[in-house]
Every structure is written in structure tokens, then in C-alpha cells.
């Protein structure tokens, strides 16, 4: 799929993407605003105008691309941002496979990348290449632990898995298999499907035949709905679990009554009115939601957009520190920016508190998740 650089109308919002030559810091942004991952990528693209355009005494220019959900286009975009636009950092790409495909290029160029993706493979296990990547979402093990703990608490002993046959799905299978074995839960069915598939009937029938007490779907965006609806249509009556990849309004809209009762562990943004004011992320999340709704005529953002907003917060903290070691546009600045991101401590984001270390480039702990269920077509805290 041909990569598409965003062409924006001549509005005040567009000015954020085309600042004059005086802009000193250049940030590339790659989102999947079209293609199979668009439900995730659109709120990410829409969040870019809410990112800081001035940090300290530096102005910031955002150079935005839509990779069309295509991994090859992601590589093309990254190479262009590095070699032609000489960016100091990159936010994106949207999908886990896309992010995995560009790691070597950002590492070779020494350009920090803030990846708003679900799969922990982009930062784990840590390698010399992955030290240039930072992840603005909760790692899979934090989310999966909450789900498996709930399974244990409710007496679930058998589990069926169905997820994407890509890095997102594969890492979830790896994490859940390990946690389930320790918890005494038997995986009785394990099925894969493609992000672009329109039918998973065969996989669903095999899961149905295994008769697990619960099924976990490991897929982001619209892809998370298909397996659950298919199993319900075929008569499955057990408990459904979803990953934080399903945490978007479209899951409720596309799933309808058939996804009522689903349980997932995800961002507090889904149930913000139910979160106590004492939670440090509540005010940050509310500020983001209010700004997004003001810009987009009352539309509420999906949590995936917040992952890009948090990337802006991380850069806002790190850029003034990096500036002490070199000028934007230089190798010294980019290296110092990477170091400053890695040393982030107690940064309150929209979905949790970031504490980065050389071994942990996500930085979330249990404060970055809530157990949530679907009740009468709405997200609600699981109590």
C-alpha cells in the first residue's frame, strides 16, 4: 500500500504540522489512519494537534504520515523521516508488526521512537536495538496478570485462546500460557487468525468443541470483535476476556449486545467518572479528553489516542534535559533525548505513572490498569 503523507486544510490545526523554518525540534509521527488498523490509528492521528508545539525555548514541528496499516509503508516513512526530514524522535507506528519492522532503522540512525502499540515485543526482551524504543502503553504481562488473577478468583480452570497471527497475538499467547500454567489453568484450545480475515468460523468451531470455561481474544481494534461475535453466534456460553486492544468505543458499537459481560483490563479512561479524584492520572486524562472533544465537535477519544498524547508528555519532560547536551538536529541531542526518556520518573500520564529504567521502557505498574466489564453496552468498573 502506498504511503500517504497527510495533506491538511489551511486551518489553524494544519499550522501545527507546517510550522515555519524557525521550528527547532522535529518529531515524526506515523499512524495507521486508513487500512485494517484505522480504528486504532485515527484517534492517534487526531491527537497530534494536541501535542506541545513549544517546549521550553524550543518550538516543535510535527511531520505526520499515514502508513495505511502497511508494514512496508511504515519502513518507507521511517527512512524518509530520518534521511530527509532529519527528525529528532518518532511517535508511532500504530501497529505492533509495523513498529517491530522499523526498530532496526531507528536504532541504526540513533533516533528515539515512542511506540503507542500493544505488543511488549517492541521493548522486551531489551536489546541494543530496542534501547531506542519506548512504549506508551501497558506491557502485556501487567494486563494479562489482572485477567488471569480474575480467572483464578472465579474458579476458571480451562481456557481457550484466539488471537492474531502476528507479534501482538504471539506475545499474548506466550504471556498467557506462562501465567495460566502457574495458576493451574489449562489451555484447551489455541487458535490464530489474520487481521484482515472476515471469518473465523473454523477456529471458533474448534474452540467450541474444546468447551473451555472462558475464552481470551488477543487482538486490537475491530479485529477483537469478530471471534467473540462468531463464538456467541455459534452458541458459546462461557466467559469472554479481551486485552486492552479492545478498549475503544467501536468495540461496543460493533459488538452490540453480544459483547455484554466481556471482561478486560485496560485504561482508567474507559471508566473515568468512576475513578476517584485521588488517582493522579484522572486529571491528566480529563484534560486530554476535554481538549480532544473541543477540537472534534464533542467526539470522545479512544484510549489509543491517549498513547500519543502521553508520548508528547514524555517528550515535554525529556527535551529540556536533552538540550543541555546538544542542539536539536544533532546526534548528541538525539542520544541525550534517549537517555532522558530512559530516566523518566514519576511522570503522570493519561493511563498511569511512567517510571522508566534501562530494563523497562514502558514504565507502567498496576496503576496503569483497571478491571472493566461491558454492561448494557457501556464500560463499567468490575466490582
List the helices and strands and how they pair.
Layout: E1 4-5, H1 12-15, E2 25-31, H2 38-47, E3 54-55, E4 58-66, H3 71-83, E5 89-91, H4 96-109, E6 113-115, E7 133-135, H5 140-153, E8 158-164, H6 167-183, E9 186-193, H7 201-210, E10 214-218, H8 225-233, E11 239-242, H9 249-255, E12 263-266, H10 280-295, H11 303-322, H12 331-342, E13 347-348, E14 353-354, E15 370-375, E16 378-381
Helix pairs in contact: 2-11, 3-4, 5-6, 11-12
Summarize the model shown:
It contains twelve helices and 16 strands. It is an alpha/beta fold and 383 residues long. The strands form three sheets. Strands 1, 2, 3, 4, 5, 6 and 7 form a seven-stranded mixed sheet that branches. It has a seven-stranded mixed sheet with strand order 9-8-10-11-12-15-16, with helices on both faces. It has a two-stranded antiparallel sheet with strand order 13-14.
Folded structure, characterized:
- The protein is an alpha/beta fold.
- Strand 8, helix 6 and strand 9 form a beta-alpha-beta unit.
- It starts with a strand and ends with a strand.
Percent of sequence in beta strands: 15-25%
Total strands = 16
Rounded to an integer in angstroms, the radius of gyration calculated over CA atoms is 20 Å
Regarding quaternary structure, what we see is single chain
Order of helices and strands: EHEHEEHEHEEHEHEHEHEHEHHHEEEE
List its salient traits.
alpha/beta; globular; seven-stranded mixed beta sheet; 383 residues
Amino acid at each position: 500500500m502506498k504511503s500517504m503523507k497527510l495533506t491538511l486544510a489551511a486551518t489553524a490545526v494544519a499550522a501545527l504540522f507546517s510550522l515555519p523554518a524557525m521550528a527547532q525540534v522535529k518529531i515524526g509521527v506515523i499512524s495507521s489512519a486508513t487500512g485494517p488498523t484505522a480504528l486504532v490509528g485515527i484517534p492517534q492521528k487526531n491527537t497530534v494537534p494536541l501535542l506541545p508545539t513549544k517546549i521550553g525555548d524550543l518550538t516543535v514541528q510535527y511531520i505526520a504520515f499515514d502508513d495505511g496499516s502497511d508494514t512496508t509503508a511504515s519502513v518507507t516513512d521511517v527512512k524518509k523521516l530520518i534521511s530527509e526530514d532529519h527528525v529528532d524522535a518518532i511517535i508511532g507506528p500504530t501497529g505492533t508488526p509495523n513498529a517491530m519492522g522499523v526498530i532496526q532503522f531507528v536504532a541504526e540512525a540513533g533516533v528515539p521512537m515512542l511506540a503507542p502499540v500493544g505488543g511488549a515485543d517492541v521493548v522486551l526482551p531489551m536489546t541494543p536495538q530496542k534501547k531506542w524504543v519506548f512504549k506508551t502503553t501497558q506491557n502485556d504481562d501487567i494486563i494479562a496478570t489482572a485477567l488471569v488473577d480474575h480467572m483464578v478468583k472465579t474458579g476458571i480452570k480451562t481456557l481457550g485462546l484466539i488471537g492474531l497471527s502476528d507479534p501482538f497475538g504471539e506475545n499474548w499467547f506466550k504471556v498467557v500460557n506462562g501465567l495460566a500454567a502457574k495458576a493451574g489453568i489449562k489451555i484447551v484450545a489455541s487458535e490464530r487468525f489474520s487481521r484482515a480475515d472476515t471469518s473465523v468460523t473454523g477456529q471458533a468451531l474448534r474452540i467450541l468443541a474444546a468447551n473451555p470455561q472462558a475464552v481470551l481474544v488477543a487482538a486490537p481494534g475491530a479485529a477483537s470483535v469478530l471471534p467473540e461475535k462468531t463464538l456467541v453466534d455459534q452458541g458459546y456460553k462461557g466467559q469472554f476476556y479481551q486485552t486492552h486492544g479492545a478498549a475503544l468505543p467501536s468495540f461496543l458499537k460493533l459488538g452490540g449486545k453480544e459483547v455484554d459481560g466481556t471482561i478486560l483490563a485496560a485504561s482508567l479512561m474507559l471508566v473515568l467518572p468512576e475513578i476517584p479524584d485521588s488517582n493522579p492520572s484522572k486529571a491528566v486524562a480529563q484534560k486530554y479528553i476535554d481538549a480532544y472533544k473541543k477540537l472534534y465537535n464533542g467526539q470522545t477519544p479512544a484510549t489509543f489516542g491517549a498513547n500519543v498524547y502521553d508520548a508528547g508528555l514524555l517528550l515535554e519532560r525529556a527535551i529540556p534535559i536533552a538540550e543541555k547536551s546538544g542542539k536539536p538536529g544533532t546526534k548528541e541531542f538525539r542520544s541525550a533525548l534517549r537517555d532522558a526518556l530512559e530516566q523518566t520518573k514519576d511522570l503522570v500520564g493519561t493511563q498511569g505513572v511512567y517510571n522508566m529504567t534501562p530494563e523497562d521502557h514502558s514504565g507502567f505498574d498496576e496503576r496503569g490498569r483497571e478491571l472493566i466489564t461491558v454492561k448494557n453496552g457501556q464500560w463499567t468498573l468490575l466490582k
